[in-house]
Write a structure and sequence with these properties.
This protein is of the alpha/beta class and 340 residues long. It has 11 helices and 14 strands. The protein has 2 domains: 2-236, Rossmann fold, CATH 3.40.50.300; 261-336, ACT domain (Alpha-Beta Plaits, 2-Layer Sandwich). The relative contact order is 0.12.
Length: 340
């Protein structure tokens, strides 16, 4: 649905230039939740604002449904933006207006509905986000989680196809964060929205995203299915972000004898409910010790990830073990070999 092609963004400040984005290419499928993660200054918010043309790429293009956003005239761009909802980090509510008035504002700007239909639509989206009884209150009377629900309701008012979320949970406490993330999941499933979510938290990605792009210094350094990026990270930035979130990426930390082979086993999906480790040991005829491991869920996907020590004397035995793993859909990576 969304294609970002070789996008660059350069800001000029007097004699100096700052490159916020460098040759970014991504494809975001219709109906998925796509996460963009990175540290502050990585370029993720700039990338998000390219999608609704709040920022224009210095080079490259952004296409939505194969239409170049940069080629749209003012009328076409207004129509596009009405298809795109935006959820802000700090809510961006008008404190002098009630909840109902805040949510109704984009409907009044669009001018497509009669006043009575606008009021009905406001009631619908407030009910959808779970605050149907808060319409007459002002933002100051609400909790942080409730304010963000108002922000989400406002973003949904015009029945968008795409929802952009810029650090939508970073201003919330852990309980409110969990509730808002569950709300986004429920809304996406009910309305079949495409959600692009910027965050600095791998735990947010783990909870809701289908795919993720990891950014560093304006570049996408890694992207793919959340399960692949979490279980088999390729870039040091990704591994650091995972470690900081409490997701252990060190496979050698529990090794007792580096004269043995240290292998990381990972798997996800339907096979995660099967007794894989015992099957691999039985079918390969080889014993191994488990150094560390974890099992859990990444959004709706079950996974397992284990580091093992394997003692074999012949290369053919090691290859046999790796082949048995592959037969069962287990990704095996040799991190240390006793023969090197």
């Amino acid at each position: 649905m969304i294609k970002i092609q070789n996008a660059c963004k350069v800001y000029s400040t007097g004699a100096a230039e700052f490159q916020a984005l460098n040759d970014v290419t991504l494809r975001i499928a219709r109906g998925e939740i796509f996460g963009i993660i990175g540290r502050s200054g990585a370029g993720k918010s700039t990338l998000l604002r390219l999608i609704n043309h709040l920022e224009e790429p210095t080079h490259g293009a952004v296409l939505i449904d194969d239409r170049d956003v940069g080629a749209l005239d003012a009328r076409q761009l207004r129509a596009l933006r009405q298809r795109i909802g935006f959820v802000f980090q700090h809510f961006n509510l008008l404190h002098s207006k009630t909840v109902t008035e805040n949510v109704r504002l984009p409907l009044k700007v669009a001018g497509r509905l009669a006043p009575q239909a606008q009021r009905q639509r406001v009631r619908e989206v407030l009910a959808l986000v779970g605050i149907a009884d808060q319409g007459d209150k002002y933002p100051a009377a609400l909790s942080g989680g409730q304010r963000q629900r108002v922000g989400i309701a406002r973003a949904l008012a015009n029945n968008p196809d795409i929802l952009l979320c810029d650090e939508a949970t970073s201003a919330l406490d852990p309980e409110s964060t969990a509730a808002v993330l569950q709300l986004l999941l429920d809304i996406q499933r009910r309305l079949q929205l495409t959600i692009v979510l910027v965050t600095h938290s791998m735990n947010v990605i783990r909870a809701v995203a289908d795919r993720v792009a990891v950014m560093d210094r304006g570049c996408v350094v890694e992207s793919g299915r959340v399960a692949d990026v979490f279980l088999r990270p390729c870039h040091e930035v990704t591994r650091t972000l995972l470690t900081e979130s409490g997701f252990d990426t060190s496979v050698l930390s529990g090794a007792t004898d580096l004269h043995r082979h240290v292998i990381e086993l990972s798997y996800d999906g339907a096979v995660a409910g099967q007794p894989l480790l015992s099957r691999i040991a039985r079918e390969s005829g080889l014993d191994f010790s488990i150094l560390a491991g974890s099992a859990g869920r990444l959004k709706d996907t079950a996974f397992g990830r284990f580091s093992i020590e394997l003692a074999v004397e012949q290369a053919v035995q090691l290859q046999q073990f790796l082949a048995v793993c592959a037969t069962h859909g287990v990704h095996a990576k040799l991190w240390h070999s006793a023969w090197h």
